Automatic annotation (TrEMBL):
SUPFAM superfamilies: cAMP-binding domain-like (SSF51206), Winged helix' DNA-binding domain (SSF46785). Residues 50-98 form the Cyclic nucleotide-binding domain. It comes from Azospirillum brasilense. This is CRP/FNR family transcriptional regulator. Gene3D superfamilies: Jelly Rolls, Winged helix-like DNA-binding domain superfamily/Winged helix DNA-binding domain. One of its GO terms (molecular function) is DNA-binding transcription factor activity. It comes from the Bacteria. The keyword Transcription applies. InterPro entries: cNMP-bd_dom, cNMP-bd_dom_sf, Env_Response_Regulators, HTH_CRP, RmlC-like_jellyroll, WH-like_DNA-bd_sf, WH_DNA-bd_sf. The keyword DNA-binding applies. GO terms for cellular component: cytosol. Residues 160-230 form the HTH crp-type domain. Pfam families: cNMP_binding, HTH_Crp_2.
Length: 239
């Protein structure tokens, strides 16, 4: 099961087979499960804290562990042959990564902020899925949904302007946050640029345009408030 959650980059796209296995199942609260919490994955997981900018795994390493984010934010990326970096996606609490059939990781993962993750040995996860078909079906269902959504997003972003891409990105983060108008943006402008296939300068200009148009407000602590989500959605759907 292999979910593709990359937002496509212009000018160079990473081939489909090289995208990340990223999932949001189950989307857990950013805290350690209680002793009586019915979480089949927690029983086989170990907690690990990664410092800001610390590598979690690198492309080409043996893919013997699946990771679930408990708190913080993680970037997934590939280095292209010309030396550029393509950020495949950003992981938040509840997201899983490493669920792929490949023997080795097809991308690298780094902590953007101090992050806590659950490390789940692949062999133990395979045994758990064999013993619990319902859990396996749930994982497969979410993987399929993620794949369809990601492919739709790739097609859309391939036709969008820089400002439309940025609006889509902010709305996607807002939907994932699920509460309030303010969203956390702990990633850098460079990270966003490498995710959307833009330059850092273009991303910065885009934020300025959205701010002067009163569509967003830049808050302290690396947060952005969406002042007019409906107008942002109209902008994002202009392609």
């Amino acid at each position: 099961m292999h979910a593709h959650t990359a937002i496509a980059a212009q000018p160079t796209r990473v081939p489909h087979g090289h995208q990340a296995a990223v999932m949001a199942m189950p989307r857990v609260a950013p805290s350690r499960p209680a002793a009586n919490d019915v979480d089949p994955l927690a029983a086989i997981a170990q907690f690990r804290v990664f410092d800001r900018e610390q590598s979690i795994f690198a492309e080409g390493e043996a893919a013997d562990t699946v990771f679930r984010v408990v708190d913080g934010m993680i970037r997934l990326y590939k280095l292209l042959p010309d030396g550029r970096r393509q950020i495949i996606g950003f992981l938040q609490a509840g997201d899983m990564v490493g669920l792929a059939f490949a023997d080795r990781y097809l991308y690298s993962a780094e902590a953007i902020t101090a992050s806590t993750v659950q490390r789940i040995p692949r062999c133990q996860l395979d045994a758990l899925l064999d013993a619990q078909p319902a859990l396996a079906r749930r994982l497969l269902s979410v993987t399929t949904s993620e794949l369809v959504a990601a492919q739709d997003q790739m097609l859309l972003l391939g036709r969008k302007s820089a400002l439309e891409k940025l609006a889509s990105f902010l709305l996607a983060l807002s939907r994932r946050a699920g509460a309030g108008r303010a969203i956390a943006l702990p990633m850098s402008r460079c990270d966003i640029a490498d995710h959307l296939g833009l330059t850092t300068e273009t991303v910065s200009r885009g934020f300025t345009k959205l701010k002067t148009s009163r569509l967003i407000r830049i808050l302290d602590g690396g947060r952005v408030e969406l002042l007019d989500a409906e107008a942002l959605a109209d902008l994002a759907e202009c392609a």
